[in-house]
Each structure stands twice: as structure tokens, then as C-alpha cells.
Amino acid sequence: xxxxxxxxxxxxxxDWLEARRALLVKxxxxxxxxxxxxxxxxxxxxxxxxxxYVFDTPAGKKTLAELFDGRSQLMIYHFMLGPDWxxxxxxxxxxxxxxDGTLPHLNHHDVTLVAVARAPLAKIEAYKRRxxxxxxxxxxxxxxxxxxxxxxxxxxxxxxxxIDYNFTTLPASQGNDELPGxxxxxxxxDGQVFHTYSTYxxxxxxxxxxxxILDRAPLGRNEDGTMGxxxxxxxxxxxxxxxxxxxxxx
Length: 250
Fold this sequence. Notes:
By secondary structure, this protein is an alpha+beta fold. It contains 8 helices and 10 strands. Strands 1-10-9-4-5-6 form a 6-stranded mixed sheet.
């Protein structure tokens, strides 16, 4: 999808530089504001977890503490793939396309990244093979984990008036049986696990490097609705064209 702008200012190089320098002032202010927000995020209080969540993994059943894989920090992506779903959410799949490259960097910085979905492990493994992903992905099928972290909702929940999502109360009509999120945990030297942070809805958008690149492209995200252009990476109608410098067909 590409829609050229109907009208856009075209100016001299001098005028462009003046406008670009003015924008740079705001970009630097935004960066400083982001740094300040990150500091506030790091200063949030923690909650000690006493509930012993257990997950199905390719290596057998593991507790939440065991998912840390010997590291002190754990990031969990709440992936929308329900027990009766045929495939993962396209938006979550878009997010997942960005994860594999981060693994060596995160792991060598004392951070483990794991995706969690409520689908049975066999369904997760099949979809993971289809998509060609390597990141760890486990099942919370027999666990309260998803419900406790407000990313899975029962038919009874959705038949009610409201649900709790993204730290607020929403009309149940705006909900779904599965919703996305990102949660962070810390494990201390004594093996105690603490919940340190969660974010939902568009809160993890900065993890989507594709969107960050598009935000700097001439036409931006060029979308009719939030991520309306996104498909699972094996479902786009046209194969990507080769770059002009590749010397080979796509």
C-alpha cells in the first residue's frame, strides 16, 4: 500500500535546513523526555510474586522462576494465540518478527526474553515453525498466568459489562479473549521473583523497529488504521523486490 500525498511543500535547500533545525530542537526535547520517563519507569516499586506459575515448554514443565534461564531479568511478551485459534494474531506476529535479532544482545545483558501464549504447546510449536522464529515460546494453557496479568478473558468476562485491561476499565465490547502486553520480572539471589513492570495496547510500540523506520520515511506509516497494513510475513501478496544494489532477484 502506498498513497502519495496530494500536496506537500517543496522548498529550497536553505528553507529545508531551517525547518529541519527547528524540528531537531523538538526531537532533542523528545529524547530528553523519553530518558526522564525511562528513569521514572526504573523507579517504579516492585511486587513480590508468591503464586507459583507453571508453564509447558519444549524442555518440560517450568516455573516462572525457571524461565529466567539463569539470568536475573525476564521479559515476557504476552502473545495473542488462544487455545482454539488457528494462527497467531497478525499484530503479535509482526512484533515477533523483531525479536530473534535481539536475543544475543539481551542474553548477554542478563535479560531473558520469552513469549507466552495460552494455546497448547503443540499449537505454539507448529506456528513457530511456520513463521521460522527461534525465540523461546511457552504455553500457559493450564495456568492462571494470562488471567492474572489481564491478557486473557473468558466468555463470561466478555459477556459482562466491563473488563480490566491496560490499568483501566473498558467496556467488555472492546475486549477479546486474548490481548497483547509486555511484562518484566526480576529474580534475586535468593530466588524470589518480583513483577516490576507491564505495558499493554500500544505501550510496547517502540519495540516495533519497522514502525520506527516508517515514522522517518517520506509517507510515514501510511495506514488507514493502527497497523492496518500489517500481515503475517508469509501472507503479503507480493514478494519483496530486490534492493538496487543486491544484484540478485528477490
